[in-house]
Design goal:
By secondary structure, the protein is an alpha+beta fold. The protein is about 55% helix and about 15% strand. The chain is built from 7 helices and 7 strands; from the N terminus they run ααααβαββαββαββ.
């Protein structure tokens, strides 16, 4: 009889203890899940809680993953807002000008001479819109790796010559003297099409910010690991406080806001060079000119 009573008491205690443990586990899990849902940090004391430490640690890992996803989503949301805002700013002026010129051209009393003049002005604005949209498309392709960016060992001389050929007409229009110092061809780690875009952008900027009759030079310097391609001009130069800003997306100095451009070119160039494991530097003296240096990896023979 006493044995039966003792067994009954032990059974009751066992059942009670199991119920207590289940409630304790439930309350712990419930508290931890509330922390995850409310984005509250899980305390170190929770992680160290004896037999539940493995469970708590797993929930903590889930919380960290979710926080990373949320932070990334918020960052991308801000990036999209910034991109839309900047695109709106870039497109607003040419669209307003096109609207104005279209209104002028619709008037019957306009002379043939003025009609031709405003038609030319409208075409320039259309070209600017196309250029901005194309630049934005390139930027998205690079950022999202849509175009299957392929990099391999390629001779750099033809890449440079193709870029010079692209901007040759602009050089002639401003009577700018371009000097390409003689150099032996080198096989460098780059994508010819996209790296040509980098050089074209740097050369176009040099032409744009150099006065009539100015000078631009291209120099290639070989080092053990990298080859440096310098593009220097004697143009207006860049203020020292802006040297860290010019590579940011859509950045444009107040001094050149009224000149053609979108503030995407240098940002795009940096994206290209990052994918090629290269980089770019700039030295400039305001009022005397700038020198942009592109560094590309040498390919081993």
């Amino acid at each position: 009889m006493w044995l039966s009573m003792i067994l009954a008491v032990l059974l009751c205690l066992s059942i009670g203890y199991n119920i207590y443990q289940k409630r304790k586990t439930y309350r712990l899990i419930d508290r931890l899940l509330d922390s995850v849902l409310n984005r509250e940090m899980i305390a170190a004391s929770d992680v160290e809680e004896g037999e539940y430490s493995a469970l708590v640690s797993k929930i903590k890992q889930i919380q960290d993953v979710l926080d990373n996803h949320v932070n990334r989503a918020e960052y991308e949301k801000e990036q999209v807002k910034s991109l839309v805002s900047n695109m709106s700013h870039q497109l607003k002026t040419p669209l307003a000008n096109i609207s104005l010129y279209a209104e002028i051209l619709s008037k019957e009393e306009i002379t043939p001479e003025r009609k031709a003049m405003f038609s030319e002005k409208m075409q320039r604005q259309v070209d600017k819109l196309n250029w901005i949209v194309e630049s934005l498309s390139k930027m998205v392709k690079l950022e999202q790796n849509i175009d299957g960016f392929e990099v391999k060992g390629t001779g750099i001389k033809q890449t440079i010559l193709d870029a010079v050929d692209t901007i040759y007409e602009k050089l002639e229009k401003k009577n700018i003297n371009l000097t390409l110092e003689p150099f032996a061809d080198s096989v460098l780690y780059h994508n010819r099409k996209w790296t040509e875009e980098v050089f074209v952008n740097l050369l176009e900027n040099a032409v744009k910010y150099t006065d009539l009759g100015g000078a631009i030079s291209i120099r290639v310097i070989n080092y053990d690991l990298y080859t440096e391609i310098q593009i220097a001009d004697n143009g207006r130069g860049i203020r020292q406080e802006e040297l860290t800003e010019i590579f940011k997306r859509f950045y444009r100095s107040r001094e050149v806001e009224n000149m053609e451009g979108s503030g995407i070119g240098l940002y795009l160039s940096n994206l290209v060079l990052e994918k090629e494991k290269g980089y770019m530097t700039v030295n400039s003296e305001y009022g005397k000119g700038s020198c942009f240096s592109v560094f590309l990896q040498n390919c081993k023979n």
